[in-house]
Amino acid sequence: MIRAAEPSDVPAIHAMIRELAEYERALEHARATERQLHDALFCEHPAVFALIAEETTESEPVGFALWFLNFSTWTGTHGVYLEDLYVRPAARGAGHGRQLLSALAGICVERGYERFEWWVLDWNDPSIGFYRSLGAEPMEEWTVFRMSGEPLRKLADGNTA
Q1: Is 113 considered catalytic here?
Q2: Which of 81, 86, 113, 131 is catalytic?
């Protein structure tokens, strides 16, 4: 079962984010708090959203997808950017990941969004194979850039040297 996240899901989402960060060998970088997640997901005008995968309506969440809108100047439409997709190891193989992705694809189609995008670590062969099996294609010729910390502050101050 896939459903929209509710405020009571925040502790489970937070725990799964930390599980995902540990799997991605970056637990020390997962600093978001439950309060931050709650405020981002359930404020008056949220810019980030989450879906929950459950075995049954009475069960603890077994997976989640956290996403937000992006925009393509080339197509003139919004798209969905999937920030995190995670299914707990004990629940893998039951179709939850596929159902979460299908629900997000449905949001795209229903709303006229032309793109559904996400990143995957180069070494994550199981996920890459899964995404390819669904028809997703890696973006060739594109490199992801990130700026944070001191370089971000320097640029914000106009100091690019």
Answers
A1: no
A2: 131
